[in-house]
Amino acid sequence: MRVHVDRELCEIHAQCVFAAPEVFDLDADDELVYDPAPSAGQREPVRQAVQLCPARAITVTEG
Ligand code: SF4
Questions:
Q1: Whose C-alpha lies nearest to ligand 1, atom 8?
Q2: In the UniProt record, does the keyword Cell wall biogenesis/degradation occur (predicted)?
Q3: How many domains are there within the chain?
Q4: At 25, is the secondary structure helix, strand, or coil?
Q5: I need a surface site. Which of 35, 45, 50, 63 has the fewest CB within 10 A?
Q6: pLDDT of residue 49 exceeding 90
Q7: Is 5 near ligand 1, meaning CB less than 6 Å away?
Q8: Is any ligand 1 atom within 6 A of the Cβ of residue 50?
Q9: How many whole angstroms from 55 Cα to the centroid of ligand 1?
């Protein structure tokens, strides 16, 4: 599973951080940081993050 966040769209709503805190986080400057290749066990939290993101900035590809 590969995760990509379009930083042009991302507005730091942080819904993804609540949904999948092991994959998404905000750094000290409130910039989004994320794991682009999370483990398979993170699939469901990541799926929720995709659905919750108000900016639709998260895309996931399998493989
Ligand atoms: S929920 Fe979407 S807009 Fe908000 S920080 Fe995460 S990726 Fe960015």
A1: 10
A2: no
A3: 1
A4: strand
A5: 63
A6: yes
A7: yes
A8: no
A9: 7
